[in-house]
Amino acid sequence: MLIGNYNNRVSLKGRTAVPAKFRSELSKKIIITKGYEKTLFLISEDEWEKQLNTVNLQPLVISQPREPDRFILGNAFPIILDDQGRFVIPKSLRQHAQIKEQAVFVGVGNRVEIWDQARWQEYQQYLGENVEKIVNSLASNQELKP
Amino acid sequence: MLIGNYNNRVSLKGRTAVPAKFRSELSKKIIITKGYEKTLFLISEDEWEKQLNTVNLQPLVISQPREPDRFILGNAFPIILDDQGRFVIPKSLRQHAQIKEQAVFVGVGNRVEIWDQARWQEYQQYLGENVEKIVNSLASNQELKP
DNA sequence: TTGTTAGTGGTGAAAAGTGGTGAAATATGT
DNA sequence: ACATATTTCACCACTTTTCACCACTAACAA
User: Fold this and answer.
1) Which nucleotides in chain C lie less than 7 Å from some protein C-beta?
2) Are B33 and B55 in contact (CB under 8 A)?
3) What CATH number should be reported for the domain holding residue B83?
4) Which end of chain A is more exposed for a tag (fewer CB within 10 A), N or C?
5) What residues of chain B lie within 8 A of the CB of A137, using their CB?
6) B19: Cβ–Cβ under 8 A, 6 or more apart, which residues?
7) Footprint of strand C on the protein (CB under 7 A)
8) Quick check: A13 pLDDT over 50?
9) Within-domain flag for A66
10) How many domains does chain B divide into?
């Protein structure tokens, strides 16, 4: 399971390294695509195909009604890590996530999210101020399940 | 059952030792994550998985409410103790809990909380001065905010 | 005291992160 | 189509960080 968060540098040309802790689980062939809240998603090839094929499991392509599937599919790039575990974030994706010098790689279960460092810190503050709401929402989710 | 509290030093680089009394119950593989009121939580791997189930996170799917995933999974780090029972507290977590030279490890049933010593002492004083209020609010089933 | 366990500092080899480079691939202009 | 310019990317080399140990000191019980 992908958990925790790690900081890595992004070069002017968008080159960055996947944190070592995530490499074994993501493997060398990875899909990178646009995520929600101005993030990027990194998903292993296996997990990607699983998501696309498993119709009943609320695949990642069905998001919100208004959001076209091509948001994710149309912005997905296959990448292969070099021997140092690095790759280049496509320019359009870098712009979408407003990634500058420092990026934060966040493990969120089955995927890794990439955040611009400044935005991640802001988001952390927001989360910290709303812990109770978040926890409550989890509690109510649970009641809905059998 | 994890109970009592113990003081341990934290090095400049964030290295500290789990109090010996807690080691057997936590075992060597531990999860450290953000807790409430600027504390950190230490829980055994087993307990972690149990908690994930009860809280009903769905890490295998890109779920709709993304905040809980990011808060809980994104701030959880797996750690392994060395032969002296020590580990390094990730920088971002140290900052969250404002941990400086001295840390207090507090056993709270199924988890251990880590406090900055100064903050722990303040909190103890607050508790001492407000025991009656707290007990009363518990009796009337209300929440008390510090 | 003496033996045993817990806590703490230090260290060096290994791992991870980062910058640079040149051949190969791709794009561009004529 | 060909020549030239530009970009890409696989690899090398260097720097920084991490972490598994060793060794000493403090606390404590017999």
Assistant:
1) 5-9, 15-19
2) no
3) 3.40.1550.20
4) C
5) 65, 67-68
6) B6, B8, B105
7) A 6, 8-9, 11, 16-17, 19-20, 84-86; B 6, 8-9, 11, 16-17, 19-20, 84-86
8) yes
9) yes
10) 1
- Enter the tokens of residue A134: 């978040």
- In a domain, residue A141? The reply is no
- Per DSSP, the three-state class of A77 is strand
What residues of chain B score a pLDDT lower than 70?
Answer: 56-64, 140-146
A86 touches strand D (CB under 7 A): yes
d(CA B40, CA A8): 24
Residue A130 is assigned to a structural domain of this protein: no
Q: State the residue for tokens 């990448």.
A: A79
Q: Kindly report the nearest CA distance between residue A122 and chain B, in angstroms.
A: 13
* Residue A37 is assigned to a structural domain of this protein: yes
Overall pTM > 0.85: yes
**Residue range B57-96, pLDDT digits in tens:** 554 445 567 888 899 999 999 999 999 999 999 999 999 9
Q: Whose CA is closest to B37, among B138, B100, B116, B103? A: B116
Q: What are phi and psi of B111, to 5 degrees?
A: -140, 165
CA–CA separation, B141 vs B129, rounded Å?
20
Residue of chain A nearest B69, judged by CA positions:
A108
Phi–psi pair at B29, nearest 5 degrees: -95, 120
Distance CA B22, CA A82 (A): 42
Q: What percent of chain A has pLDDT over 90?
A: 62
